[in-house]
Amino acid sequence: SSTAITGNVTLKNSAGTTITSVPMTQRSDGTWLINAPSTADISQISLTFTLPAGATIVPGNGSLQDFSDGKTVVYIVISANAKNYAEYQVRLVTAGGQTSEPTLVNTDVSDWKLDKSENANGSVTFIVGVPLEDETASPDSVDVALGSGSYSGVNIIKSSGTLLIMGTAPSMSELQKMSISSLTWTLNGSEYSQTIDPPVTYEALMESSSISDGNRNESAAPSDEGSGCAVPFLPWPFLAALLAAGVAARRKRS
User: Are 105 and 125 in contact, with CB atoms under 8 Å apart?
Assistant: First the structure.
């Protein structure tokens, strides 16, 4: 017997008034998202699902639930013959920038890490390792506000439960202007944002990383005059992998 939820989900407020009827979408981590209007009080809201004939659901259809502050409500659908069941982990997402989606990154700067490599032409290649709040999170894309400095080639990837923000500053003085104040990301076609207050500055990253302001290329091979860029002492992808592993290890120790 089937345990599949089909069709739209009806949302009602605490007074029993219908707010909307919308589909739910599944994330890559297996959880399900339902969009609600920005005016909805998701701390007191009921969901009514379309179930297969004879199937039941726990908590029951129409029961008030609290989806505020990133809460996930687990629904279990039991087939008509009571031999099969399926678990649905459900979150609500509200329009207008409000969301019950968990924050993307851990804002405890002591868990962040900066690594940098000063090049022969004066530019500085950097990686900032930022631990994800939920290590299983898989955003489709991420953008970050880095402050007033000038940066090029900025790329953001996920590795071992860590966001790696990589790029190049034209000079050390520009890198020192770094101040990470917010992130935006997309997930299943919806956009979310997280404000980082206070912003994470270059100085805070240096203190957290416990690395000196000295040139990381002191033991590097001689620079290639044709490219004007020193050869890093480690291949950059390998350095990124080490940084991600280091951030993950620091989180486990804490």
Answer: no
Q: Are 226 and 206 in contact (CB under 8 A)?
A: no
Instruction: Using alpha carbons, select from 110, 112, 92 the residue that is nearest to residue 102.
Output: 92
* Residues with Cβ within 8 Å of residue 195, at least 6 apart in sequence: 181, 182
Answer whether residue 147 shows pLDDT above 80. Answer: yes
φ and ψ at residue 32, rounded to 5 degrees: -115, 135
Q: How far apart are CA 168 and CA 222, in angstroms?
A: 20
Res 229: pLDDT: 32
Tell me the pTM: 0.51
Can you read off the two tokens belonging to residue 176? 């020192």
Structure tokens at 182: 């917010």
For residue 124, report the phi and psi dihedrals to the nearest 5 degrees. -130, 120
Q: CA-CA distance, 173 to 114, in Å (whole number)?
A: 16
Residue 196 CA to chain centroid, in angstroms?
13
Query: Whole-angstrom Cα distance, residue 80 to residue 29?
Result: 28
What does the block give as tokens for 100? 């019950």
| String of DSSP letters for 100-166 | -SPPSB---GGG-EEEEEE-TTS-EEEEEEEEBSSTT---SEEEEEEESS--EEEEEEEETTEEEEE
Q: How far apart are CA 64 and CA 44, in angstroms?
A: 6
Query: What is the total residue count of the chain?
Result: 254
- In the numeric block, the tokens 């005016």 are attached to 39
